[in-house]
UniProtKB/TrEMBL annotation:
<dbReference type="GO" id="GO:0004022">
    <property type="term" value="F:alcohol dehydrogenase (NAD+) activity"/>
</dbReference>
<feature type="domain" description="Alcohol dehydrogenase iron-type/glycerol dehydrogenase GldA">
    <location>
        <begin position="10"/>
        <end position="178"/>
    </location>
</feature>
<dbReference type="Pfam" id="PF00465">
    <property type="entry name" value="Fe-ADH"/>
</dbReference>
<comment type="similarity">
    <text>Belongs to the iron-containing alcohol dehydrogenase family.</text>
</comment>
<dbReference type="Pfam" id="PF25137">
    <property type="entry name" value="ADH_Fe_C"/>
</dbReference>
<dbReference type="InterPro" id="IPR056798">
    <property type="entry name" value="ADH_Fe_C"/>
</dbReference>
<dbReference type="InterPro" id="IPR018211">
    <property type="entry name" value="ADH_Fe_CS"/>
</dbReference>
<dbReference type="InterPro" id="IPR039697">
    <property type="entry name" value="Alcohol_dehydrogenase_Fe"/>
</dbReference>
<dbReference type="GO" id="GO:0006113">
    <property type="term" value="P:fermentation"/>
</dbReference>
<protein>
    <recommendedName>
        <fullName>Alcohol dehydrogenase 4</fullName>
        <ecNumber>1.1.1.1</ecNumber>
    </recommendedName>
</protein>
<dbReference type="InterPro" id="IPR001670">
    <property type="entry name" value="ADH_Fe/GldA"/>
</dbReference>
<dbReference type="GO" id="GO:0046872">
    <property type="term" value="F:metal ion binding"/>
</dbReference>
<keyword id="KW-0520">NAD</keyword>
<feature type="domain" description="Fe-containing alcohol dehydrogenase-like C-terminal">
    <location>
        <begin position="189"/>
        <end position="380"/>
    </location>
</feature>
<keyword id="KW-0560">Oxidoreductase</keyword>
Amino acid sequence: MSSVTGFFIPPVSYFGEGALIEAANYIQTKDFKKAIIITDPGIARIGLSGKVTKLLEDRGLSVAIYDQTQPNPNIGNVTAGLKVLKENNSDIVVSIGGGSAHDNAKAIALLATNGGEIGDYEGVNQSKLPALPLVAVNTTAGTASEMTRFTIISNEEKKVKMAIIDNNVTPSVAVNDPSAMYGLPPALTAATGLDALTHCIEAYVSTAASPITDCCALKGIDLIEESLAEAYKNGSDKKARTDMCYAEYLAGMAFNNASLGYVHAIAHQLGGFYHLPHGVCNAVLLPHVQSFNMKCEKTNKRLAEIATHLGEKEASADATIARLHRFNRDLNIPRNLKELGVKEEDFEILAENAMQDACHLTNPIQFKKEEVIAIIRQAFEY
Ligand SMILES: NC(=O)c1ccc[n+]([C@@H]2O[C@H](COP(=O)([O-])OP(=O)(O)OC[C@H]3O[C@@H](n4cnc5c(N)ncnc54)[C@H](O)[C@@H]3O)[C@@H](O)[C@H]2O)c1
Ligand SMILES: [Fe+2]
């Protein structure tokens, strides 16, 4: 393996209340004329895409909109959004939402300049040209998709999620304004917050972790420990929401560069196969995958370090895993994969597909198929 590490983040990011207006001002300073907003029906319903439309129109841009992105966005969403972009000759893409809206927008922006189909870009750095500029306005905390070089698109026919990992899909501007998150319901706050925690932990035990990603991951865990329960209880708590914006972005800095592990490799299959929410799948799988990862001595030590960042007195891997289960219970995450409707007869294909997912490559242990099935079984029966 090469000893060179890269570090990739968007060139510009804004945080804090008012970040959305700051981003609109930034767009105005560039020579864009025609924006396309990529969002989903939920965001349209709460009026957030309308608000951004007005901010952009007030600054002299024309605005087209595609607001039909589904959770776990699929090829059909990419094709439909790209059609609207082409019809309007858009020169800048603005995504508003959680990971689904951003991932759809990234795929659309990439195809707008590179052509072809999104499946052509599965894998690492398969595109030749920069995507159209993308300003990603985040509303969940979160996937960190507003700042990563990952885009995850479901192939609805094959029932699998494709991972496109490409520097060219990194957004030009990432926006984390807590005021866009005050209305995020508790269940979504929990699921997306535990997704961020999974990013921190998988990046911290990743074989590609570096001192920089370690710092990001541990600080992210500290902030999540401090604020996720509060954001869950009281969605309009400004401090808790602001902390979670920073936490999810730090988590993104960590996994965008150290990558992930078997939690995400398996969760992607559950999303593709049963359309289950990404954060919930991660939360359920996280303690089980780490209990298998504990068998690696170095990872055991790292998991023990995490315990104190999660507020545990005892610095042990067991304490971390117990805390992760408690986190799930406190935030009303379903107990196991059985409750999520996963079927025993699918274990084999889920494990096979997880082993094809690029995210597992940096897991501290490369498991055999039987071991992946054993993890799924443990998370099913727990
Ligand atoms: N590209 C990446 O780096 C990356 C990383 C992790 C996950 N993902 C992907 O992200 C997707 C999941 O994204 P997500 O968990 O952010 O959820 P999501 O984007 O699918 O949104 C879930 C629901 O929450 C609603 N919502 C979002 N923000 C809201 C707000 N502020 N108020 C009220 N409702 C709101 C949406 O309308 C939607 O109905 C999955 O497809 C996953 O694979 C991508
Ligand atoms: Fe994730």
